[in-house]
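We treat protein structure as text, and this decision shapes the records that our systems exchange. Because each token names a local backbone shape, the row as a whole describes the fold. An entry from our holdings is shown next, in its original layout:
>
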Amino acid sequence: HNVQWGRMLCAPRVWPDLGRVRVLGTVGILTLVLCSCSGQPASPPWDLPGSSNWEHQRGLIFIHMESSLYSLPCSPMQMGVDDPTYHWVQDRAAAKLFSVTEDGHLLFQHFQAEDSGKYSCTISYTKRGVPLSQTFRYSIFGYHVPGGLDIVLLFHSKLCEDEWTKRFLQNLQEMLRPLEFEQHCRLQLTGTSCFPSLSDPSDEFIIQVQLKVSPFGPHWDEHCRSRDTESVTDCYRGTVQHNLEQVQLALTTFFKEHKFIHVTGRDTPSIPFTNEFVGFLKTEECDAGYGQTKQLQRCLDCCIVCPPGMFSPPKNRQCSLCPVGTYSPTYGAESCTPCKDGMTTKEPGTISVMFCVKEERTKQVVTVMHKIPVLLLILLLVLLGINGLFLLSCCYWLCKDHQMSSPRASKKTGKTTRMERVISFFRVSRQGPQAGPDAGPARDTSSSPGADEYAPGAPSLATTPNSAALTDETTPMLEVKDR
């Protein structure tokens, strides 16, 4: 599609270079303001800096595959210099001829996946007797909107030999070729098979032919050339859908009119191949070498060409890294190239054969890298085990201390501690005769010669004559208090 320059104000041209100027006069400021208001380009009123080489880093440029014509300017802005010279360079080792216009535009005709890459353009000119140059860099990626047709054709024939089948396919392709130019599409044979017919296996065979229709044929985008970059993708999408509908209608009519396709040999009469079935299936798949990466903001479902180090086989929507031992130096690779002579790569996604090394060295590196996670896992398990044992031991001792200090726990076991016995004795001693009818005869502990034996710190109550009675009276009193 065409490139539109747009209206450029002079302020954006000048302000990025203000950091190099220490003093800006009043006349210069007025000139910039008047220039910005009028929309006319103007040069700064001061001299250019001592360095004559500037470099501008550009973003990504997306060009649709099979575009009839795409014009890429050398400079993203209108510079207005006298007698400039342009020099385009691509980052590939192989030399390539470029089609450059007089004003420095790089032309792409029928853009292909391998045309993607990094480009740079250098403008050289002279200003006030000083030679200057500016370099602009572009990263160009091919893309396409998803869409296509898968066609299945069934023919009946009396022969199922490879020679006759090959002749039949050649005749079929010759007959379908005019449709490619009429419908602006491309027809590609993807597979054939021959098997006996179920109705009469001894006499007839069925020839199955698979075709793939690509909507990007000759001059497919002629209606979208005058669109700008914002609306051109929508135009592409509408064109693809319209072309696919027209192709389906044209093929249906074609096989109705050409029911029989005759194949002749040198010493054999013509053999008819009778068409019995035509099936269409619309697809939204990416072409081989393309994948959906959502890099193009105005078309998130578009298929972007796979960069070096990645590949995408047919009927795959994602670009994948080249496996270890392979590499891919080109854009739009369907498969990766394996390293030769027993060599391999250290990691996936290799972009050059220069990264292929001997397999022994790589095995050692891979072995060490595999051992490190195992050792870390073992160390982690050991630490978790130690922490678990520590927590279990803490819980065990806490539970044990709680059982030893709980009075209810002592009752469940049927035993009383020494401290409980002492407390029970003093309670009975304070109550005296008023303890109740079942308390038994009161005892004068003050006059008893053995009263000091029951003081705190004295021997066990079991050594006194009335220890059994005290124990029987103590138990009910403790139970009432607990309740």
In short: Residues 149-282 form one domain. The first strand starts at residue 53 and ends at 64. The helical segments are 10-14, 26-38, 162-183, 232-257, 359-405, 407-412, 418-431, 467-482. The two ends are 95 Å apart (CA to CA).
